[in-house]
Target: MCTP2 protein
Amino acid sequence: KSANPQWREQFDFHYFSDRKDMLDIEVWRKDNKKHEELLGTCHVDITALPTKQTNCLELPLEKHPGSLLMLIAVAPCTGVSISDLCVCPLGDPNERQQISQRYCIKNSFRDMKDVGFLQVKVLKAVDLMAADFSGKSDPFCVLELGNDMLQTHTVYKNLNPEWNKVFTFPIKDIHDVLEVTVFDEDGDKPPDFLGKVAIPLLSV
Model:
């Protein structure tokens, strides 16, 4: 019931420098549980923003009245990576030893925000649901930890996809839950849900 809402939410997106992505933002209005209406969209060219500083942007909504006030900071990202299985970041014994030393008890209070990190190897899925009329799916996998999100590539026309990717996340809260969701890519339409698992970090 507000024409001037304040959300004060923070989201972290992992932006890799070889990408030329736009940040797409949509504002929606809910009448009730069944009806939603698009109030406007706006776009931010990430490559045009100065780095290592917080940019205050007032973005007019396209083809609709109103504007969106945002703070966007582009900063070097530490601890996040995507790699192939054959070049797994923790495969080197020397690196494992450095990490063990970094997180040993005597160094516990050196950096209070550096809780640790999680490495996830996404190997494959088996017997997925067919989402296309051809009896196949175009699956990809999305990993979410807190408000960090990474995803695999899409394997087309396959119910038993193999991704063989390694994802590394910094841990901000040991009580977070790793959510792994499989979607079917559907062209310009929103992806179809194929399944999901949730793994509390404390269970690992």
In short: Residues 84 and 165 are 5 Å apart (CA to CA). The chain has two domains: 22-74, 81-203. The first strand starts at residue 22 and ends at 30.
